[in-house]
Amino acid sequence: MVIGLDAGGTKLLGASLDEGLELGPRVRHTWAGEGRDATLEVIARAVEDIRAQAGDVEAVGLGVPSLVDWDDGVSRWSNHLPLDDLPLRDLMTERLGLPVVVDNDGNLAVLAEHREGAARDSSNAVFLAMGTGIGGGLVLDGKVYRGSHGYAGEFGHMVVDHDGADCPGACPGRGCLEALASGRAIGVAGERAARDAPDSALGRRLAESGAVLGQVVTELAHEGDAAARAVLADVGRRLGAGLTGIVNALDPDVVVIGGGAVTAGDLLLDPAREVVAARALPPVARAVRIVPARFGEEAGLLGAGLLARELL
Amino acid sequence: MVIGLDAGGTKLLGASLDEGLELGPRVRHTWAGEGRDATLEVIARAVEDIRAQAGDVEAVGLGVPSLVDWDDGVSRWSNHLPLDDLPLRDLMTERLGLPVVVDNDGNLAVLAEHREGAARDSSNAVFLAMGTGIGGGLVLDGKVYRGSHGYAGEFGHMVVDHDGADCPGACPGRGCLEALASGRAIGVAGERAARDAPDSALGRRLAESGAVLGQVVTELAHEGDAAARAVLADVGRRLGAGLTGIVNALDPDVVVIGGGAVTAGDLLLDPAREVVAARALPPVARAVRIVPARFGEEAGLLGAGLLARELL
Predict the structure, then answer these.
(1) Is the same domain home to B207 and B181?
(2) Considering only alpha carbons, which residue of chain A is nearest residue B289?
């Protein structure tokens, strides 16, 4: 038995994972702006809670929304949690008295999708998690590719608008894919569209609630609102421009799109596919598949458990 | 003894390569718009000419500016030579009566830089060849990474301006790095700068000769012309925007810039380095080196020879 934990930007999810790759009861904590010590306390308590139920636990896998030094398990830089320059693996190993492995959450999600999900049977897979931001991970030649230090897979911070606006959050970049095609970007574009079309369902929702989030755009698009559909198509085309560069550079078998925004389904992915078909180098465009993830918010959790099993 | 050949967009270069990795006398042919049969004839004749001088040749490595199916040696799509959907490896093997290996020219150049050049001692290296267009290659975990079909490494066709202008040449993309930061892009920007500053050395050169090529911009920049230097700095910053995305995605040890445009040296590379330092995720930016290639126009030729040796 092992434990997988995924400490995302908004919440922590944890569960045990048995030999049959079945996840046990979930533990969940929504972050409330905890500082560093309290964050570590929440993580440690989640492990102890799961352990109390699961019995004989041999290792812990922990995902964080950070650039993680793969060699020494130091969380080097985080866009979302107060974990900069923190020897997270060693701290947790000591605190829990168990072997702990720490990895970037996107690396864990691509591991789960490759072993058990939408990238199964592929040699080379690109994974993008479109949540509030865009995380990512990469499987090359059947293994998670982490780069020279552990920082690889940050497809959200590929520049797709070289002279573009500042990337939201702590990223010092401009014109990053995350600024143009994340869940947050769907909300921003949705609010603009709602103002432009006050009689649309999107416009009425803005008038009622004073704001439009990405998930509202998706919901109204599924209900058939033309303004909301146009927003998803626009963001999908921007995503497609980013994917065009990625597939030309990496020639993967498959691109897997996960994260909350993928509930938009083909309303988002078809425009992205059309752009890749039209703009990528023809043999690359013909060969690559662009598919939704199998796992939703639990991809990182499962990947963390799988990595803990590999550690043993 | 093996033979290496590099059939680039403008010329063919060939030479023998001995066990000490010494290249023999060079054979060179400048393309004059030959059709498919004549192109193959030029390649075959180059091999025979080298063989006549070199004696006992055991294998041939051939680089082409094409997407090459790695499994079967078919040149699938070429931006520069009439080699689309051509079983180049099998045709040449039969014609020459020697084992032949065919690869994309950027893959061969990165092989040469990794084994013997600027990427030596690195695990993960990105290579960009800034010539008329932008070619590229990738070494990951110490080996050339070719992707799922053999098409990887086309960094020139990463989208850095998602709503940008058509990519020149046969690429169906828009806003590709090649459109913004190739040798040709230096010429285009140089001509615009020459018009804007008719009293600069660049402006006078345009008035004299009616056109400005990338290499003229570089030459005048080295002589101190401020207008020419500003052009290289601009193009260098665009290159830096593209590199920012590449290093965030791949976390390489080193980025090697080759091709004709790199004669601009730090006038081009320093602005690129500054953009990466300012805009890439901080731990990635701190860790990566951006260096000029060791080999100039002979990188592909040497790589072709090295690959032929590996074939044996």
Answers:
(1) yes
(2) A148
Q: For A44-94, write each residue's pLDDT tens digit.
A: 999 999 999 998 999 999 999 999 999 999 999 998 899 999 999 999 999
> Residue B260: which CATH number?
3.30.420.40
Q: Kindly state whether residues A27 and A67 are assigned to the same domain.
A: yes
Instruction: Specify the number of domains making up chain A.
Output: 2
Using one digit for the tens of pLDDT, what is the confidence trace for B70-129?
Answer: 999 999 999 889 999 999 999 999 999 999 999 999 999 999 999 999 999 999 999 999
Structural domain boundaries enclosing B136: 120-292
Statement to judge: residues B174 and B145 lie in one domain? yes
Q: Does one domain contain both B139 and B286? A: yes
Do A147 and B248 count as a contact with CB atoms less than 8 A apart? no
Catalytic residues of B: 105
Interface probe for A, chosen from B281, B289, B290 (most Cβ of A below 10 Å), is B281
Q: How far apart are CA A302 and CA A299, in angstroms?
A: 5
Q: Which residues contact B91 (CB under 8 A, 6 or more apart)?
A: B40
Which chain A residues touch B138 with a CB distance below 8 Å? 249
C-alpha span between A272 and B81 (Å, rounded):
30
In this structure, are B209 and B227 located in the same domain?
A: yes
- Rounded to 10 deg, the angle between the B214-222 and B266-279 helix axes is 90
Q: Are B65 and B8 in contact (CB under 8 A)?
A: yes
Q: A162: which chain B residues are within 8 Å (Cβ-Cβ)? A: 160-161, 180, 238, 241-242
Helix axes B226-250, B266-279, angle to 10 degrees: 40
Task: Write down how long chain A is.
Answer: 312
ipTM of the complex: 0.96
**B135 and B281 assigned to the same domain:** yes
From the list B162, B176, B250, the residue facing A180 with the nearest CB is B162
